[in-house]
Amino acid sequence: MSSDLTEAAVRALPIRSAADPGDRRDRLEEDVIALFDEFRDPLLRYLSSVGMAFPDCEDVIQEAFIALFRHLHHGKSHDNLRGWLFRVAHNLALKRQYRTRRDLEVPTEPGAENSAIDPAPSPEDQAAYSQTRLRLLAVVEALPEQDRRCLFLRAEGLRYREIAGILDMSLGAVSLSLTRSLVRVARRAKQCNL
Amino acid sequence: MKHKDPHLSDQDLLLDVDGEHSAHDEKRVRAHLKACWRCRVRRDELENAISDFVHFHHGQFEAKSPPPDGPRALLKAQLAQLASAEPSQPSSWFALIHRLRWSLAISTCGVLALGLFLSHPVRHGALRPQAAIISIPDSRLTPGAALLVDQRHVCTEPNIKNKSVPVALQRKVLQEYGIEGVEPRAYEIDYLITPALGGADDIHNLWPQSHSATTWNADVKDALEDHLREMVCTGNLDLTEAQQEIASNWIAAYKKYFHTDRPLPEVR
User: Fold this and answer.
1) Which of A111, B17, B195, B225 is the most exposed place for a label (fewest CB within 10 A)?
2) Separate counts of helices (H) and strands (E) for chain A
């Protein structure tokens, strides 16, 4: 599982400095937009994978980038902004999901949040996806929620330490969770001869 | 005696694939892999599972994901609005506050004690949460909404400044802004695009303007609205442009059209 973003690139995100406050603000806006261009898709992919509808994902991403602007505007750390963005977006998404469930006052069954955004495939989708792909989907959807989150974060290139920080788990637990999930995927792939 | 499996575990293999082993463990695992075909095959199986999963995951997303242009433009607009509302150099303020923290702490305690005395419930009957000062509406909740009317229609209608908003709609606006438990009179539910410039009776055009705002308050906004209406009706400004200026950031519009960084004294 590899990512285009190396650790070095993540650490060297180009937040520039400027002497003039107006210039500094303009550059900060440009930098935040550049980060949006780079991380919007990975964030959207992660949030939608863990059960949010696309419009909600977009709202959460907007909030996360506004928080990032404030974070940088207040002179706070520029280290590992990718990890920072994923952590903030993850927490905002949890809050939003909690609020939605509370407002609706409808008990949510496990996996129900996923079905809201990812309904049973339409006939067109079914034609587009092979049977084996659907089986892989079934394996991933059957994983416990925390294992799915780990897997999707890793798929976006986050390192074990970053995942542990975002999901508030130990490094060992992240490693075990990923192994558990991938062993299941590998078993199913072998059965289907993917 | 417990039998020890001589082969590497799946967890070890995955840690190796992901480059997450310590230097010592990496050396041990690599030495084993060089000698053991079975573990090499298993490692390949795990790598293939990752590859299958990533193709499936990305393929599924690419088929459904919405384009980024709209959200990108929205973020740009929000950042521009935020940048004009935020103080320009907070870092230096933080540094100053850091240097003077003890003197500030002592003064703050004094001010708080005085404040507590003055605002004691015995003096005012009851304690209420303080109303937050909102000078610029949240563009996600209040992007502005206008009727499909032209300049001639707007300019023949009377200049209505304070068209009343139904109470139920007022409550909904406060609720959307998460304002609870404060004195309702602390806010005026105001039109972002004034009806005098074709603004609509729509929740997307309403926001809670704080009465406690001392600088950029409702009177200042009224002055801007009058000025823009005059420009529109004398043919010096396009109606749509006036609506857009006021909806995107009315404070910035005020600065632009009155050529000032502060509200002019006669309108405060």
Assistant:
1) A111
2) 10, 0
